[in-house]
Amino acid sequence: xxxxxxxxxxxxxxxxxxxxxxxxxxxxxxxxxxxxxxxxxxxxxxxxxxxxxxxxxxxxxxxxxxxxxxxxxxxxxxxxxxxxxxxxxxxxxxxxxxxxxxxxxxxxxxxxxxxxxxxxxxxxxxxxxxxxxxxxxxxxxxxxxxxxxxxxxxxxxxxxxxxxxxxxxxxxxxxxxxxxxxxxxxxxxxxxxxxxxxxxxxxxxxxxxxxxxxxxxxxxxxxxxxxxxxxxxxxxxxxxxxxxxxxxxxxxxxxxxxxxxxxxxxxxxxxxxxxxxxxxxxxxxxxxxxxxxxxxxxxxxxxxxxxxxxxxxxxxxxxxxxxxxxxxxxxxxxxxxxxxxxxxxxxxxxxxxxxxxxxxxxxxxxxxxxxxxxxxxxxxxxxxxxxxxxxxxxxxxxxxxxxxxxxxxxxxxxxxxxxxxxxxxxxxxxxxxxxxxxxxxxxxxxxxxxxxxxxx
Length: 456
What we know:
Layout: E1 3-11, H1 21-30, E2 36-40, H2 50-55, H3 58-66, E3 71-72, H4 76-80, H5 84-90, E4 97-98, E5 103-105, E6 117-121, E7 127-134, H6 138-143, E8 146-148, H7 151-162, E9 168-174, H8 177-186, E10 192-195, E11 206-208, E12 211-214, E13 223-231, E14 236-245, H9 255-271, E15 275-279, H10 292-304, E16 310-313, E17 324-327, H11 328-334, E18 341-347, H12 348-358, H13 361-364, E19 381-384, E20 386-390, E21 396-401, E22 404-405, E23 411-417, H14 427-430, E24 435-437, H15 443-455
Parallel strand pairs: 1-2, 2-3, 3-4, 7-9, 9-10, 10-12
Antiparallel strand pairs: 1-13, 5-8, 6-7, 11-12, 13-14, 15-17, 16-19, 18-23, 18-24, 20-21, 21-22
Helix pairs in contact: 1-9, 3-9, 10-15
């Protein structure tokens, strides 16, 4: 038996967190040979970082080029936090192939900058199919003029097509661990799933229905490595293993990456130095008290959505604004989240339950992770058009909507944040049957608009 070993290096969910990036790149470069492949599984870019914001993600592509990545797929941060045009041109200068099997234009065409899969052939002729897929946030993609289809259906179709033509099938999945496990169950013939999205740390991977699933956490905390042993004579996989490498134990840094990061950051800071407004007095931010800046943003959010009622947590603003010039970078530092405005319709009873939940200690001090939130804690709920009477212990006594007592059976239309429509932060909002998202505008775009409107 003659065995060829193929090594896959994989990163996922870097989210523009570059603390360990130069070490990861150095390790990959030092361990490259004819039988290694390096792939990134999406969410490398995150607009909470100054560089990604200023370059519309193209700085991330330069970093991936420098890292000698071979193939990449996209995550939701690439797919739905950039405008249609920004995503369409994001990979113009990429030295690698972008693999997404379930993304199309609204006309049903596949964009020229991506392929559903590729077949990578090693020096000894081993054929490895790599198929990419991204999480199907259908409503978001649709509003950005993209069409995203079921990733499991797309992958199943390509596995069926390719299984007899190749020796190994690898899926690059930005779907999350639970969908990866479903994929392993429903689609026979996948050897390895390299996963992302849910930030799981799988030290030695997981095996489900004969498929090895690997995922490497987030923010470059680990570099993933999967080895696949193939019998050259029978062209079959005889073994595969996954492990995670800890960059903190890597001594060497890649100088080219360090220099590129420094250069990109310097240029990005300059690009965001443009003044948006000059304010005549400080705008304070408080996470637990009523404050001028948070109220201004809540009112602006409501106005932007052309509604009379609005709500958002104060924790979306991270710092106060001092008297004087306000730049794009100042706004980005205070409001770094890739969060979109949203309008929902809920009953008075649902709104009442939401407000009661918002005033619990649990929600006001919640150190939220994910859902686009890049702050510390959620903080106090701010309102426009809604008055909440509290007792001395901050317990809700009464709720007035546009000066009238809340009516449980009445339907209210509310401007708010898209992150409340995910998961179970506020179940009544998440369960709303009417949700309208405003894209590609982010919350900080609305803040810049309002500041400029008042104090240009």
